[in-house]
Amino acid sequence: MDTRKIIDDLLGVSLSFLTPYYKQGRGNATTARRIMTGLGQTEMNTNVVAYDEQSFSRDLVETIKKSDLLHVLHFRRFAEWLEKNDYQVEKPYVITSGGTDVNIDIFSSEYKEKIGQVLRNATAITVFSDDAKQKLAEVYPEVTEKVHIVKQSVWFPHDASSNSTVSFAEVGPNILLPAGLRPVKDVLFVLPALVKLKEQFPSLTFTILGAPLEKSVVKAVRQAQEKYPWIDYFEEVALEEMEGVYLQSDIIINTSLSEGQSSALLEAMFLGKPVVARNNGGNQSIVTHDKTGFLFENVNEFYEQIKLLLTKDEIKEGIALNGRKYVEEHHSLNEEIESYLNLYLQILK
Predict the structure, then answer these.
(1) Strands of the 251-254 sheet, one edge to the other
(2) What is the CA angle 171-244-204, rounded to 5?
(3) 291-319, pLDDT tens digit by residue?
(4) 3-state secondary structure (DSSP) of residue 268
């Protein structure tokens, strides 16, 4: 359907976007801000409810009640918010996976049923990849027909700067891992390989960048910093600064045990940076091994892949170019927003 026709048909429709985070420097906030930016190009009446950042109030409830349609982000957090506030949503809603919810939470006996209730009540469900859709079908076969795949896009704020408060060594190579500090991100998994690489590339640095979410992981990272002075850790950096962070880096990596669809990898690829990622379903959805990046199963494979990128410029340049082309062709903001608009229209009709 023609995008202009969809926008015209949705003229005046009131939509509330419910996200756990909007101000904090977390992946869900980035997703919410990106989608809201795209929806801002339409003539819908939109507003944001950051349900884990705002207090539950009469005004919040009124905002939801006045909406024609809701778009909700994150299965588990939304289910917990409803339960905590003893609230039931009476408006039709689309619910989008936050990543961890579909990779971990739906398999937990603690969350499985409460998430299932939220999914069964949803009018439509969206996930970022076929891998996520298959996982949902495995746990909740009854909702399969209303699950849609909508790929994430790449978006940097208009006031994004190539400068950053985070500065890396000018020599390098500088290896960057953007990830919140929690067990599923497994940020020190490749440390043995990096120690070995440091012996061959004396100027190598390793930087972890992300929110300090789990005390045990933060402690482990701090201990690694004390032992290896070439490791840096920075807490949350504003999205407006992330372009500058990527541009200072030589290789961006992902070590997660599981992923929804890494916005950090997509952003790095869009900016022409080579990526090396742990082999899981979410990373497979955006990285084609040996073409748009590298996927590793173990520490030894990671070591060999990084070494290859640091010693073979033609391979590094080819991977970076292919990655950028892939993101430009398959992860545009316009396509992502058009997919959501089409879904909204189907629901309201």
Answers:
(1) 231-234, 205-209, 174-178, 251-254, 275-278, 294-296
(2) 25
(3) 999 999 999 999 999 999 999 999 999 99
(4) helix
pLDDT 10s digits, 31-69 = 999 999 999 888 889 999 999 999 999 999 999 999 999
What whole-number distance in Å separates Cα of residue 258 and Cα of residue 261? 9
Radius of gyration of the chain (CA): 21
Integer CA distances (angstroms), 105 to 38, 110, 161, 239, in order: 29, 8, 36, 27
Burial of 141: CB neighbours in 10 Å, binned 0-12, 13-18, 19+:
exposed
- Helices 27-39 and 263-270 meet at what angle, rounded to 10? 60
Show the domains of the chain with their CATH numbers: 3-153+332-348 (3.40.50.2000), 174-330 (3.40.50.2000)
pLDDT at 160 over 60: no
CA nearest neighbour of 48 among 57, 35, 323: 35
Contact present, 98 and 20 (Cβ < 8 Å): yes
**Contact 189/276 with Cβ under 8 angstroms?**
no
**Number of H-type helices and E-type strands within the chain:** 15, 12
Cβ contacts of 328 within 8 Å, gap of 6 or more: 270
Count, residues in the chain: 349
CA distance 162 to 176: 16
Nearest Cα residue to 213 out of 175, 192, 187: 187
With beta carbons less than 8 A apart as the criterion, state whether 337 and 41 touch: yes
Assign 3-class secondary structure to 141-156: HHHHHHEEECCCCCCC
d(CA 58, CA 319): 52
Nearest to 190 by CA among 208, 171, 211: 208
Q: How many CB atoms lie within 10 A of CB 89?
A: 17
C-alpha closest to that of 273 among 298, 297, 299, 309: 309
